[in-house]
Each structure stands twice: as structure tokens, then as C-alpha cells.
């Protein structure tokens, strides 16, 4: 299986490298193939957006990068290397050292990361003390600086606040401050803006972009919202049934989608639609990942499907450097995917 | 106006659906399936069923009249020919006494719980659904009764009413009504706030329709589990009351009463003395495990 | 669209207010959540009115007030000219107006099969059980689910999209004229959302329905609505035809809201957020105009006086609650042509 290169420049080694990742969940009834052969490489300072619906495996992929999956029920195969550490083979203690320092994660729900019984100042300072061995006073000062960095007003006062005393957007910022406290090289973001109001969501997106540039972090950002992915990501990977069906620079994937699922996602949503007329909805339902069909997993819902699609799992075809797809018909030039209409925002 | 055709069923929806059509199971059917797979519960149910059969059809399983005593036959040991469990202190066949006694003991175990379930369940559900004043009135009443430890309450009531099986049942019912009110009210209050109950109100349904279609079927499960766990307590309590002389009176056979009267045999033949206790233990244990099994089966993750 | 030529709106809401007391606190200092405050609007037969706003704006409470699941503190609701409470009873209202809830799972009784859930409404209103179940089967067909397969399914055996279709069928069982959709597609995957939106459009034509579509998703509201109402902290800030609202928003909050939508163009990303911070707490809303604490054009008049929702002169069918757009209000920009489009 060809490894889609993340960039043309092969001299800088990627800070995140995933090779043929498979994650299987064993349940009493069936084996669920949550992730079926995901490979990618991420350069330092670049943002990869993983776009997919529920059940696509995007969250599982993210959690595999930091090994946050329950060990009893799942089996992880493949190699994951982050900032020089091979995550899949590290011991628990070594892993704990890597988490928080080299690689950090932010979540959809900030209360997952924030302990309700400690003030946010205490939580951030504790992380700094634990990982960097700094003195408590120095850690406290760093915590205040971090709160200012994430643009929480009255940072000094907020250090002594408990999570429930903050509004939703502030809590999200506090969680980001906590994640960035030890300056990780890689930030994993699991739908951090999904639960937020629109006006708060854009603030967090802009903030994350700024921080990412300032700190030079590599970010893997998982979302189901196309608009958010477009705002945040340099490169997009569209995920379906546990595989990347298309990867490429954001502009390319949005303007010239190279997989029927990507095109359908862009045209079936209300973004590309004319008001009052029926949408071109994708027929059928998202796949049952415990019973994946033979061949291309999107074939049952794809209007371009032919018999060859169901024969074997299509490999990744490189259309041009940096842009690859898993559709053999697109790769062979047999079908042209219409360019979806872009919706312009109302000018402010 | 142009007739717009119905939205066609996507072939995938239909295929997926047909594949799962056979599995369409309601909640209670799934509970039944899980119960059938639980070996411990099945064993307990079997033991109880056997006991029930033997106790109901006691005349067919015994040779002697449980009231027929003879001083000559006092305290015969286990294994005496014709009296295979021995005799009690008045010479009555212990095996017969046990089986006939089982009738009264089981009755005193199950009937109070069933009555309390009806009374307490009704009051608790009403309180839980109504909220406000009705709720406060019912719950405070339950609190008053709750203030008394159940044993003391039962003793007090039988003390006032007098001994005998009927009064024992009344006393135990009174002791069990408050906790059942409490749990009924609690689950009903939770159910009342669920979206589908609001949707039912939005359909214009009145209180009775909503309780009948939406509340009861969601609330019965936890209440039933709790009630079955009370049965074992009821058996022990009724035995205790009889032991104290406040329940069933001699010469009727009843396990608790037998425990008391056989105390004299402690130094003569301790085995005979312990036997009613063993029966109480076994029965109570069976109901307990059954209730546990029921609770586990009902804990179906949806 | 319906060819109705009635002179009055199908639904008219006048000065609806609901304040929820916050539990606890001393008797003299009890706080209230001003969830919905003096809200007035109309819905005309055959149209779709979209209601947008962020958390705390009161749109869900408005939906519940319309359905009379919550009693308003003051204000009137009139359906087809008849005022609720006097000319029309609650039961009658429910025959005319129904609601689809957001959480497709918790809005269905897990112990009832789909057909019974749908048939419940007719049963309540006296329809015999066989007839009610028959109607349920027809409705299942209408929402795109094969009754043979789905009539006896339980909620846990259905996907989110299927459950939401059942919820829609249930709402239609009483043959209402108006359906309130409270975040009805918000919890669905985008591809399923598209299917359900198509279904809603079809049903609207087929059964001659009127919709009130509540959502926080601006794109969906734009797609499905004819007119849009924007709410902020319990009040209506702007109301008008969908294209005008989205292309030429006037109220500062509407402008901020629309420009906060993520850009779909990777070459023109959002550089700065239009607003800072979260929507404030509806327990202690700011005095005067509630948006003034985050409004870039706020002045003294905004803190002193609450702007009334008023029709814009010269723009029929458009109303806005902002001092800038009321000549003579005292706002420095009010003398000019308001905020330039």
C-alpha cells in the first residue's frame, strides 16, 4: 500500500508518523473494525484535519495516537511514532511521561479534562510541576501566563476559579491552556468546538490557529463539520468506515474532490444547496463497522459504483504529490466529480 | 397541486431492517431471554418451584397429620422409621410440620409484599407524577411510617391487633408500604421528566393515559425488583414475629413458631432444632438470589 | 405553497414572557432566569419560520411556550385567530400544532414499539385502536419507512435518522397544521440530516404544513426557512425574509452571528472572531439593550433604554430591535442611514 507523502519536502522527518494502523474492538457479539489501515505522516507545524461522520473511526484513530483506548477490549496493530517515540511499544510509565509533554489532547467536553474539585490554576500548575519539576511558585506564574495566552480575561483572578465557575467558552480555553502547559510538539483535538455556540466556536478556532503558529505545534484535528475543517486544517483527510478515502491539501480537496464520498459530503450538505429545492442526499446509512462489505466500503451508497468496486479494497492511488484517493475510478479518470458550489459568507 | 410521491425506502434501510427483523424484541422479552441464560437464577427458581409444589400439595407428600401428637413419640431423632425427619417436642411428625408450616410462612412472606406493592406502588406513582402538594402529602406520610424500624412497627401493630396470621400480614404490609412508596415516587419522578412524556402531554393526553402508556411500563421494572427483594425479609420478619409469640399461634405449624418451640430440643437433638431455621434460610436465600437475577436481567443496556 | 388567502396569520404570538425562578437563595433576593421576554411574532400559513440563536436565547423555551408545555407568565398565543385560553382550549391547540424534539432517542418511549408511539396521539383523542394503528402504518410509509418492517421495532433497534422519522410521523399523527421542529436535525450526521430535510420539504408540500424551525445551525435555517427570526437572551433582535437577513443583516448581533460562521473557502479563512466571550447569563441580563455588552456600536442610550422590535421603515416585513435603526432614538448613528448594508 503506497504511503501518501505528507509533503514534497522529504528532508524534514515528520513529527507524527502512522503506518498501517488497525484498531479492532472485541465485543461478545462481533469484532468491530474501527480503524482499517490508516497511514499518514504529519510535519511539524502543520495541521491535519480528519473529517468524518459518526462511526468513521476518526476519534478512535486520534486516541490510538496517544494510546487512550481501553486495553482489554481493543487491539491496536501498526506503528505509531510521535516526536521520536514509538507509542505502540512504550511502557506505561514511559507513556505517562510522553503524554502531556510531547503530545497533548483536547476534547469536545472540557469537563473530561478538568477536575471539578480543583481550581484551574492548581490543575495547570500541578501538570507543570509533575512534568518539568519546576517549583510551585514558578509553575503558578507559568499558569497565569498560559491563561493570558488563551485570552482568558482577568487571568490572575481566574487562576483561583473552579471549572464550574467559568462559562463554556472559558472552560474550553482553560482546557487548552492545560494541554499546552508543557509545550507539546503535537496537539490532538477531538471535536473541541462541536458543543460550542457559533460565536464562541470561531473564537476558539482563531485562537487555536494562532497558538499553533506561535508554538509551532503539529495538530491533528478531528471534526465532522466541513466548515471547521476548512478553517483549521492545512491538509484534509476524509475518513469513511475506518479508512482515509481521500487525503490532500485543503484547497485541493474542497475545490477538486477526488472521491465520491467527499464530493457527496460537500454537495449533500446544506452548504451547497439552493434553498427550497431538495438536497442531493447520500442514500443509505453510515456503515456498520462490524460487518464491512467486501471491497470499497462506500460502494453500497456510491452512485458511481461498478462491480469492480466490490471486488477488492481499493488501495491509495496518488493523483499528484500530496493528494491521494481510494477510488480507482477517479484515479483512472473514468469519472469527473462536479465542483461543489462554495457558499460565500455574508459580508460583515 | 402536484402530488409528491412518498419518499422511497432506500434499499439499504430495507435490507438492514429485514436482516434484523427477526430480532425485534421488546424490553420484557429481552429480560426473559437474559433470565433464561442465567443459570443461578434458573436453579433458584427451580428450587422455589419445587418447594411451592411440595408445600401446596403437602397432603400428597406427607404420611402424617401435622397436628397429631403423642407424648410417646417425643423428639425422635432423624431417620426414625415412618418419621424420617424425626418428631417435635409434642410428638408431631416434623416433616409434615415443615411442609404444612411452609404454607403459612410463604403466605406471610408473599402476601404482605404483594399488598404493599399494590398500595405503595399506587401511592408512590401518583405522588411521583403529580408533584407539588400531593407529592408532599404522600411522602411525608411515608416518612412518618418510615421513622419506625420495621420490626418494631410490626411488633407494635401486632401488639395492638393481637396475634394470628391475618394480623401478621397486616403488620408486615404496613412495614413495607413506605419503602415501596419511596422507590415508586423516585422512579416516577425521573420518568416524568423524560422527553417522551412531554411529547405525550403535547399530544393532549391526560394523566391516566400517560401513566398507563408511558409511565407504568418504564417504572414497573425497578419497583418489581425491589419488591421481590422484600420477600425474603418478609419471611424472616414473619418468622421472627411468630418466634416472639406475636404471629401465628400454636398449634398451627409455622417455621418461626417451630424454631421457638423446638428450643427445648437444643440439648437433646440440635439437628431437629435447626431445621426450621434451615428452611427459612433456604427460602429466603432463593428469593434473594432470584431478585438479584431479576435486577441483573433488567439492567439491559439499550 | 398553500393558496390560503386568510387575512390573519396562522399563529400569532403577542408579548410572550416567561421567567423561571432560580431555586435557592433568600426570599428577598430570589433570582429569575429571564428566558423569554416580551416576544412577539407571526407565522403565516404555508411558510417556514426559522428561529436562530445561541444558548440562552430562549428559542427552546419559546417552542415549549407555543406548545403550552410551559405556562407563560404573560402574553397571548392565537392560533388561526382564536386565542388560546378563551376561544381555544389546550387540547384543541394540540390537535392543530405539534412538535418534533431534538433528542430522537429520549423522545420515544423505549418500551413501546414505533407504531404504538405514533398511534398514541390518535388514541388519546378517541380514535379506535385498529384505526389508530392503521394511521400509524400510513404515516410510516409517508416518512419513508416500510411499515411491515418498522411498525414493531423498538427505539433501540433504530438508527438516529430512523428514530427522527418516527418522531416526525408521530407529530403528524394528529394531522396538525403547524409543526414546530426544535433542533430536529441537530443531532444527526450530515448525510442523514440531508435526508431528513428532504423528507420535511416533501411532507410540507404533501400535507400542506406550516413549520417553525428552530436551530442553532445557520446553514440549515437558511436552507429551509422563508423568514427568519433572530433571538438573543430572551428577546427578538431581528425578523425578516431569509435572503435579506442573510445577505444584508442589519442588527449588530445578526451581523456578528453570520460572520462567525466558518468560512467554506480555504483561501479566505476567518482572521478574527467578531465577538468576544460567551453569551451572557440570562439570570442577570444587561440593562437596556441586552446585546450592548458585546456590541461594537454600543452607546449610552443602549444602556438606558431597551429597543423595541419595530418595523423598518420602507422595508416591508422586516423588523429590528436596535437604536441605530430608529431615527430619533438618540444613537449617534441613528441619524444616518443606519448601518450600511
Describe the fold and architecture:
The complex is a heterotrimer of chains A (348), B (302) and C (341). In chain A, 31% of the residues lie in helices and 21% in strands. Chain A has twelve helices and twelve strands. Chain A has helices at 58-66, 92-98, 120-132, 136-149, 155-158, 168-179, 198-215, 226-232, 250-255, 260-268, 307-311, 328-331; strands at residues 16-26, 31-42, 47-51, 74-82, 85-86, 103-106, 186-190, 218-223, 235-240, 243-249, 317-320, 323-325. In chain A, strands 6-7-8-3-9-10-12-11 form an eight-stranded mixed β-sheet, sandwiched between helices. In chain A, strands 2-1-4-5 form a four-stranded antiparallel β-sheet, with helices on one face. In chain A, helix 4 packs across helix 6 (168-179). Chain A is globular and about 65 Å long. Chain B has one domain: Orthogonal Bundle (MetI-like fold). In chain C, the strands form two sheets. Chain C has an eight-stranded mixed β-sheet, sandwiched between helices. In chain C, 55% of the residues are buried. Chains A and C meet through helix 6, helix 7, helix 8, helix 9 and helix 10 of A and helix 7, helix 8, helix 9 and helix 10 of C.
Give the CA-based shape of chain A. Answer: globular
CATH third-tier fold name of the domain at 16-102 and 184-331 in chain A: Rossmann fold
Stretches with pLDDT under 50, minimum 5 residues of chain A: 1-11, 341-348
Counted beta strands of chain A: 12
CATH superfamily of the domain at 16-102 and 184-331 in chain A: P-loop containing nucleotide triphosphate hydrolases
> Could you tell me the radius of gyration of chain C in angstroms?
21 Å
Key phrases:
heterotrimer, A: alpha/beta, 4-stranded antiparallel β-sheet, 12 helices, 21% strand, disordered C terminus, B: 302 residues, mainly alpha, MetI-like fold, 72% helix, disordered N terminus
Concise account of the structure shown:
The complex is a heterotrimer of chains A (348), B (302) and C (341). Chain B is mainly α and 302 residues long.
